Amino acid sequence: MIPANPSATTRRRYAHNIINAYVNATEAQKLKGRQWYPVAHDLATLLADGDTRKGAGVIAALSANKSWSENTKIATRALGSGKATGHVRDALTKATRILNGADPTDVLPMGAKTGNFYRCILDPSDPEPVCVDRHAHDVAVGKAYGDAERGLSAKGRYAALAQCYRDAAKMLGMTPSELQAITWVAQVESLRGIGTRGNKH
């Protein structure tokens, strides 16, 4: 795992890695990344009959260790039926509380991935939240960790990586969530061996 509190030099290297990932992304990946959170926002609004906070909260609560297609499938089912299923107990408990009217900010860990994912979906223009999942971690660190533990539950490590995305986004003139989404798309497609520029793994 990377240090829980990386040095200033290490943080600059991580920001540089993120910028390089953005520069090396294809135009198609950049377009898909720019649209990612706005599309997710619209989906959350649609699934929750106009209540974007509820829709985004349920999606985020059910996102841990799920692909986006799995995530949207179980969130659609939960918001349609009013009953969360298809996940571990902790995620289902959080989703159920939100379905029953709880504010997602009172339910989700706002300093961790799911809380930041919620905020990115709720307001794609928000310049503060950064969703740091395993792919975002690997982009910043410059190394694919595979199934290895990344330690993103540690608040200091998560916060440091999120700040690297903010620093890189500032240099590129975009929101951190937009940059994270673009580099995430490029990373995922690279791992699948599609849409890359000689960057297959």
Q: How many domains?
A: 1
- Which stretches are poorly predicted, pLDDT < 50 over at least 5 residues? 195-201
Which geometry do the CA atoms define? globular
Biggest pleated-sheet summary: none
Per DSSP, the total helix count is 10
Molecular structure report:
With 201 residues, the protein is an all-alpha fold. The protein has one domain. The protein is 65% helix and 0% strand. It is built from 10 helices and no strands. α9 (155-172) crosses α10 (176-192). The longest helix is centred in the first third of the chain and has 21 residues, at 27-47. It is globular and about 50 Å long. It starts with 7 loop residues before the first helix and ends in a 9-residue tail after the last helix. Mean pLDDT is 94; it is low at 195-201.
Key words describing this protein structure:
10 helices, disordered C terminus, mainly alpha, 201 residues
How is this fold's topology laid out?
Blueprint lengths: L7 H17 L2 H21 L4 H10 L6 H14 L7 H11 L4 H4 L5 H10 L11 H8 L13 H18 L3 H17 L9
Task: Write a concise synopsis of the structure shown.
The chain has 201 residues and is mainly alpha-helical.
